Amino acid sequence: xxxxxxxxxxxxxxxxxxxxLNLLWVLTMLPLVTFFPATAALFGVVRRRILHKETGGIFxxxxxxxxxxxxxSFVISIIWSALALFLFFDYRIIDPSHSVGQLILxxxxxxxxxLFSSISxxxxxxxxxxxxxxxxxxxxxxLFSLMNPVLTILLLIIVGSSTALFYFYxxxxxxxxxxxxxxxxxxxxxxxxxxxxxxxxx
Length: 202
Hints:
The protein has 202 residues and is mainly α. 86% of the residues lie in helices and 0% in strands.
């Protein structure tokens, strides 16, 4: 009975903490220009919780990680925003029904957008897990997105489903972010551990 009570308390505590973490994420990303640092902090707190390294509570951990990653995440945000705008305008301009050439360009663009989305998913888990420069964060995100296609597809489904849920029910922004981040980082953590194990055996 005590074991069940402890597990129930732990589960409820996790649910409440993730809800509070999500509120912090929403509030700190409201200016939009702080989306990347806020999301890095979100993943950083999730990482500490999964690895049982959280100290000082959610608020302290969140703002500590926010401060630690603000410079690197701002650099990546500028690059990523420029690429996203470029792909968006290309998507709006290209008309696949206009000609065969436009259709080929459209197919290539869709593939590039999928690759861009795949790389984007790995950015934050890598940023908070490894101590790397922003160039190596992007490089490793690109490599990881290709090395494990099954995981990449699964992560795309998680993030895509969360985005769709927010699109149809905007109020879910107050709960969906932290849970999606938890699922994404949890799966990435398993992959990171497998990579370290393989590296250790070589």
